[in-house]
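Deviations from the work plan: none for this task. Representative record:
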Amino acid sequence: MNLAEEIDVSEPTAGGSANDVSAEDIREFRNAVRSVLGVGTDQLNEPDPDGLARWHELVDLGASTLCGMAEGQRQDLVNVAAAIARDFGAALSPVPFAATTAVSRMLSRVLVDSTDLGDDALDSVRSVLAGIASGDTLVAYGRIDAAGVARRVHGADIASALLLEDLGR
Amino acid sequence: MLLDDPAQWTVRPVVAPFDVSRSIGEVSVPDLDAGIALGSDPSVGAVAGLLLAADTVGGLERALDVTVAYAAQRIAFGKPIGAFQAVQHRLADHAVSLRAMSLLVDAAADAFASGRPEALRLGLLAEVAVSDHALHLAHDVVQLTGGIGFTWEYGLHFVERRAQANNALGANPRRALTSLIGLGLGDADSSLDGAEGATGDSFAAYRREVRDIISQSAHPMREEGVRVPVDDAEEAAIRTWLAEMYDHGVLGGGWPTQWGGSSDHHPMHDLVAMEELIVGGAYRPLDQVMLASHAVLTHGTEAQKAELLPAIRSGRHVWCQLFSEPDAGSDLASLRTKAVADGDGWLVSGQKTWSTDAQWADMGVLLARTDPEAQRHAGITAFVIPMDLPGIEIRPIREITGHAEFCEVFLNEVRVGPEHVLGDLNDGWRVVTAGLASERAFVGANAIQLQRLFDDLVALAVGLRYEDGTAPIDQPEVRIDLARLLARVEGVKAIVRDAVQRIFDDEEHPSDGPVAKLAYTELDVALTEAALAMIATASYGDELGDLVARWHHNFMWGRALTISGGASEIMRGLIARQLLGLPRA
C-alpha cells in the first residue's frame, strides 16, 4: 500500500494539525514496511547489506514523504514515522531514516512558511525535498561542535544532503 | 545549515566504531559559509532524536521477543528456563520498562503530528526514558540467553550496539536531560491543579463535580495509608464522609440503581473519583470495602444485599478482609483456617493476619477451608461475618510506619450460619478473586500520586541546604537524577493511560492490572529512596520539617504498596505468564 494514497492528507494549519490516519492504516503500512525490510518473527535480523536498495521499495510505499511533501501537500505524520522507525531498528537498516525524515519535515515547513529565504535557497530546498520524495536523496543530520566538526553523523558517506546544527558557536 | 552537495563535506570513520549496522562518520565542512542558512528549528533535532529512540525501541522489542521465545523452549534442570522465577521476573521488568518507553515515544510522536505545544517536552522525556534503559535491557537479554546469546551469530549484540549508537546520535542522554531540565522539572503540563488524570479530559465535568464535593466536605487523610481513626470523633467524621461519598455517587455509582447506583454512571467515573480523592488529600474508600461490595453485589443473596449494601452506603458498616494468614499471604490458596460443619452452620477456627482496619471494622469477608480434602483453590468458602461474633479476637500490629493499621485476627470456634455464606459453598476462591483483580487494576489510579511525589521531591531539592549554602537543585547531578525520575514518572503515567484506553475500547488484557501495579509501586519506592538519599546529604530547618517527615513516612509506607494487593514478585509472575506467555514457575 502507498500511505499517501490511502490516507486523507490534509494541509496543516499554521498551528499544525494531525493528518487523519487510522490505527488500522498504520498497522497495514507497518506490515508492508516490515515485509520489505525482512523483519522476521522468530529470528533477529543481521545487518542488512541490501538495506539501501530496499529504500527505493519503501519510497514506493510512501516512506520518504511521511513528514515531507506528497502530491504538493505537506504531511506531518511523525506518528507513522515513529511506528516504522521501530522496524528500521528491528531490521538493523543502514538507511538514515530518522535524519532524512526529520530534515524533510523541517524543509517542508521552511518551504511552506518561510518568507525571507532567497529564490536560490528555496530552489535548493525544493530540489532536496524532491530528491527525498523520489528516493534519490538521503539526508544526514549532525551537530557541529566548537571545533567546527560534527563528531558522529549517520550516513554522511551515502547522503546527498546534510543538515548541520551549529550548536558550538 | 543545509548543504546540498556532497563535495561540500568530508567524512572519516569514527574512532572506535561500535555499531556494525550503519556507517557513522565524523564530518568536517571546509567552507561553512557555503551552506544555506535556514535559521534555528529545535524540532528538527527533537524529531530526529525521537525517531532514533523509536529505532531503539524496535530493536529492543525484537530482542525481548526472541529472548522470551528462547526462554520458553530452552530446557534446563528438566523445565524451560522461562519457568524459573529468576528469569521470569527480569523479563517481566524489561517488558514493563519497554512498554513505558514505547508509550512515551508514541505520545511524543502523536504530539508532534498534531502540532501540540508539549511535543518538544514529550519528545525529550521519551529520549531520556529510552536512552536511560535501553542498554541495560539489551545487555541483560544477552545474559538471559546464556552462551547462545554471547555468540556473534545469534545477533542480540547488534541491538546493543545500535542502541548505544542511537544514544550518541540523537537520543543522547546528557543532551536530552539538559534540554529537559531547561524546560523545567516540576511544572509543565502535569501540575496537579490542572491534572486530567488517566482519563484525559473525557470526564472533565464529572471530575469538577467530584472536586467540588471534596473541597466542600472531605475528611482529610492524615498521612498516606493511615486510615484508622484516632478517636470516636474522627471515626464519626469518617463514617459521615463515607456516606456522603455514596450519596453523591463518588462511591458506588456503578452499583445497580436498585441499590443506589446512578443510571448515568460510567465505569471510568470510579477511576476519576479515586484520582480526585488522592489529589485532594481526602480520606479514601477502603479497597476492602470496594472488594466486599463487589463480592456481595455479584455473589450475595437478595437478603444479604438488602442487609449489607445499605449499611455500606450509610457508612454504618466498615469492612475488612480476612484472607491472609501467617503462612498464606500472596499465596492465598494455601490458607488453613477451617470451617468445620456443625449443625446447619460451621465452627471457624484459625488465624488471619494483615487485616487492615479489622480493629474498627463492623464486617469482614472471611475465607475458610470447608473441604479439607480438596486441593488449593478448591474447598474454600467465602463468608461475610460481623466482627463482633463470639470467638473473634483482634490484635492490632504496629507497622514500620509506627502506625497500627492492620491486625491479627484469631478465630476460635466462631459460629457462622448458612446466612453468612457468600456465593456457593467451596466456591470462595472465585467469589474473591474477581474482586482482587479489580483491586489491582484500580491501583492504576494511584499513578496520579506519583506526580505528587515528584513535585514533593523537587520541593525537597529546592528547600534542603548543603554546607556551602547551596541547594541540591543547584547541582547538575541532582537535576539529572530528577529528570531521569521524571521520565520514569511520565512512563508509568503513560502505562496507566494506555490501560484505561483499553478499558474504553473493551480490549482490556489480564496483565494490564499487574503491569500498572508493578510499575507504579516500584517507582513509588524509587522516588522515596531518592528523597531519603537527598535528605541524608543535606540539612533542613523547621520550615521543611513537615515535608521531610512526610518523606520518612512515604519511604516506609511505600513498602506496603509493593507487598499488599499481590506482592511485586507475584505481579512479575503474572506478567511473565499472562503477557509474555511463559510457563508457570
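The longest strand of chain A covers residues 139-144.
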